[in-house]
Write a structure and sequence with these properties.
Chain B: It holds the Pfam family GerA. Chain B: The chain crosses the membrane at residues 268-290, 340-358, 364-386, 393-416. Chain B: This is GerA spore germination protein. The complex is a heterotrimer. By secondary structure, chain A is mainly α. Chain A has one domain (10-352): Up-down Bundle (Amino acid/polyamine transporter I). Chain A has helices at residues 10-19, 23-35, 43-64, 69-75, 80-114, 120-135, 139-153, 183-193, 215-238, 241-246, 250-256, 267-273, 275-294, 301-315, 322-358. The longest helix of chain A is centred in the C-terminal third of the chain and has 37 residues, at 322-358. Chain B has three domains: 7-101, no CATH class; 130-244, no CATH class; 255-437, no CATH class. In chain B, the strands form three sheets. In chain B, strands 1-2-4-5-3 form a five-stranded antiparallel β-sheet, with helices on both faces. In chain B, strands 6-7-9-10-8 form a five-stranded antiparallel β-sheet, sandwiched between helices. A two-stranded antiparallel sheet of chain B has the order 11-12. Chain C has two domains: 26-210, no CATH class; 211-362, GMP Synthetase, Chain A, domain 3 (2-Layer Sandwich). Chain C has helices at 2-16, 74-80, 98-103, 106-114, 131-136, 145-158, 167-175, 212-222, 285-313, 320-326, 330-336, and strands at 27-29, 32-37, 47-55, 60-68, 85-87, 93-97, 123-128, 182-188, 193-202, 205-210, 228-233, 239-256, 260-277, 346-357. In chain C, the strands form three sheets. Chain C has an eight-stranded mixed β-sheet, sandwiched between helices. In chain C, strands 11-12-13-14 form a four-stranded mixed β-sheet. In chain C, helix 4 crosses helix 7 (167-175) and helix 8 crosses helix 9 (285-313). Classes of the chains: A mainly alpha, B alpha+beta, C alpha/beta. Chain B binds chain C through residues 287-290, 292-293, 295, 297, 300-301, 303-305, 307-310, 313-314, 401-403, 405-406, and chain C through 14, 17-18, 20-25, 27, 29, 31, 54, 56-57, 59, 87, 89-90, 92, 117, 119, 147, 150.
Amino acid sequence: MQNEKFKPFYLFFITYMTQMGIVFFSLPNIIADHFGYNGWIMIIPISVVVLIHIGLIAKIYSFNKGESIFETIESLNSKAKMILMPLYISLSIFWSILSVTIAKHYVHVMKFLYFPQTDIQWFVLITLILTFYLVTRGIITIAHICTIFFFLSGPIILLLFYFVPDFSFLQFSTFLFNENKDFYGGMIELYTAFLGFEVILFMFPYISKEKSGFKYVFLGHLYTSFLYFIVTIFCYGFNSIQQLTRQVYPVVTLMKYIEFEFIERLDSIIFILFYLKVLITITMYVWISLVTLKRVVKWSDNLIVFVLLAVGYISTLAFVTKKELIILLSTLTRVQLLISVFLPLLLLIIIFKKRRSNG
Amino acid sequence: MYINKNLSAHIKGRFDDCDDLVTKTFPELEIEVLFFGHLVGEEELNNNIVQPFSNIKNDEVKNILRRIEFKQEEDINSMVNGILEGKALVIFKNSLAYAVDIYVPKTRSVAAAEIETVIVGPKEAFIEDIGTNLSMIRRRIKSDCLKVLSYKIGTITQTKMYLLYIEGITSPVLVKELQERINNIDIKGINDLNQLIQYLDRKPLSIFPQYFTTERPDVSTSKLLEGRVICLLDGSPYSLSTPTSFFEFFQSPDDYNQRWILGTLSRALRFAALVITLFASAFYVAVSMFHYEIIPVKLLHEFIKSRSDVPFNPLIEALIIESIIELLREAGARLPSKIGQTIGIVGGIVVGTAAVEAGFTSNILIIVVSISAISSFVVPHIIMTASLRIARFIFIILASIAGFFGIIFGFIILLIHLCSIKNMGEYYFKPIAPLSLKDLKDTIIRAPYQFFKK
Amino acid sequence: MARILMMIILILLMQSGCMDQKIVEELGFIHTIGYESIEEGEDIGKLKVTVSFPIAETLEQQTNTTVVDTPRESMLFLNQQTDKDLVLGQVRSILIGEKLAEKGVWDLIDTFYRDPVLRPTVKLSIVKSSPQQMLSKDYPNFQMVDSVIEELLTKEARLNSIPEMDIHKFAKDYLDDAIDPIAPIILQTEDGIMSEGIGLFSDDQLRTSLPEIKARVFFLLTGEFKEGKLLIKISKEENVIFSFLKNKRSIKVGINNNQDIDVNLSIDLKGFLLEYQGKKDINNEKQMAEMEGDIQDYIEKEINEILEIMKEHQIDNLGIGKYIKRKMDYQTWKNLDWPKSIDRVNIHPTVTVTIIDTGLVK
């Protein structure tokens, strides 16, 4: 069956929507906590490193000529498939667990903020149903949905203008990274905030050929960086640094501050609207685990997604409290960070090997 | 089936018990004419049949039968069909049959559009006669590229249908696809184009209309020029166009006939109305059941004052009022327009005021529901309005289950659904998904015509 | 098939529903909360908590009071006293008794600041006397004292006689090591309430207060006072109401050998005379210049008094520390132990007054 393809500009929306997650709300706190005074500067170098990382993927894309990375891996050796099977299965289970954990984390925060008495599993199940519904529509629909969600949630950033009168450069001070705790841990934490771009690796066969189509991934990443940057700057200018290290979700507090004549406490609407973004992140990870598992089993998409979500749900069932979830999530994202570093490297090695053997 | 003898009896046998079949005989000429008196025009009958056959000799008959309007028929089925289509069948010597088309349907004349009214622009609307409708389109597109394909729908009704497209603009794949779907329709009969649409539907469970119907020939023409396919059905004062986009239902010819700023603003107004009609009541329910904290302090007192006497919870309250509005709308639609106004007054003013005074509902809800009802009428196409009404009820219920989360949940389902509908190979949510900046100029806004040039 | 299964799960889920229904008419929206410490009697040392919330039917406010050990308990006890379910999502202001404020308020503020239901824009003010009496007294002129308090605070803050202080700003200044927080003080009178200037905190403890006239000068120093009126008493016979249009404040810090810190506070005022009572001829240029000098002296005197108060209590409510912090490296700043070292800092205020016009009449 000929795959339907999407235009490369959708990569912008997909990259941005997958990268941006719940961490957006706590990012200023993470930065202030780990880097201390003027920690916002750290977003720039980390973003540049991520840019290089994406460059690696771009290189693979240009070598691969639209071929799926699975084919690249499997082309190395015909017998390799036997070894790869367990790898595929474990990867796809890992991603399904990761996505359910992301869902659970968001839902947990939402429950804590707005629905304190509701059972967390209720929200998780609803989220998984939505994910199921969206994933089984196929990558083209997902790309379209990304676009719509982008335009729906994009204008929210304009609300930052509300804080311009309260913004004070005096809060920044001239100290650099003083009072930091765990500088290197913070760098990893910040790096994981940018994760999500690696799903592009699995989309090669679905991107229609166009000259310099991959630039949209870079643009998407730059847009994410821009949002992270501007929101952190505003939080630094609006709060005192010591206050920032105490607020778990400084962006929620920021939004609570907005009061209009006809509506107040916009945070509830905006935070719940953010569900769209989180849903895309979850969907993308479920989708990559779907395409991975598809290399192994010949079931229908519906069945695979159902099984994956069920596996993810059951294996995270025991994690309920905030502390457990945060530990689980940070462990999983660190593993994901390793995967997203080593997978492209592995692919590059295979590609170079192939080129040499082909002369 | 070829029968050379006793043709007249055969045909009459087919029309056994059809007492409205008229038989006119010219015994001296051995000519028998069969037709339905109510399908043919009196004048045409006179000019083409009665007069030529009157006062002539036997040998002149053949000359007359050689005239262009006399078409020799050999198949008995086509003779029968000919009579049913308003032709007169002239049987000569009980063995030769000639069909003369003297069909003049008795329909109303072209009148102004009643549902899709515009402020500026042509007023005429389609009528029930397909020939007149086709002529209205032909009059507007004087080009040999306008192709018309003819079909018969319904095994019994044999309703005439035309499929129109412009060669060179419409993609041939589209025409082929639609032809295939039309050929696959297997029904006894059809009454209206809106029924036909439901047979063509590939997503029958969707609440959204997937084909665009209009009663305006000018809109149909512009759809043709945009590369769409148009269908006309006999007996139906509508035309169908496909592939359809969700946003077409929010366009009105007024947007194009007025200056572009006005057109753009009224489109913006319609999208605002879309949002209001979908979410206003649900928002009220969500706020009064879950998110009290978003009410500003100045409104808070009024809000709780109005809610304090109401015996129902906000969901029941909203559903009751919404149902009353639906009742009013349905009653208004079924009644003649003059009585309909009375219903509006009784329903809107008397019931509304009394409901609030009796402490049955809060007056804030009355305002919210009325605004969302008014907003739903801003959407120019009545079919879409109906879909939005259904969606609104779903949103109200979802809001009562989980507040804003419920609304967002429903909204996501709605968007995924809209994005996954495909109509004749084109996405329903075009040009937003798939995104096409070029087409956005003519959907969300209405840019000046100069901008459309390539 | 799987899709149908999902649909069934969905319907079942929807049945169970979400448990957080808060139907508006069943709630009592607390508008104002008052806290005070009990100074005498058997409950000494405990907290007295008063809440006021509007009653929809009559548009009046109801006040409930309870005595608790910690702020967290109060909601439980208060809820038992009313048919409504009391909620905190619409709290607009917090009143703290003077005595309690002197003991420290951070625990209280932190409780509020932590609670996701509360908005960070809740106004904070110190009440001389008791918040309970202030909230529960019947006032002849207004029905709902809680909203009157809120409006008074908003209005006075606009006129720059008290600060606009909410829990977010308080937490910001409290947690910041370069500034100490302030809060407005309000007073209960015979038939109403009135604002009484600014309370100055050291950390989270109320130390002293500034009366209204000094409060305006204080805002001149923070730069928040952009335009408005200022009553100036040059001497017993001479009174000036000076309305200024432009206030430019700049703070310059000079540090020599990490020890001598010089702060130059300069304020540049431009405005016109609204009212003058006295013997000077306001049309005479020479006398006008004299008057400018008088006003300068007066404001400088007031500023010096404020600075003296701050130095005496070792507090920095103006945020001079923020400017000093910018000129230092991290270690020096930490060693400085601000604001305890404020009396080591030399602050030189300079005020320039320019009278643009004296009104319509010669």
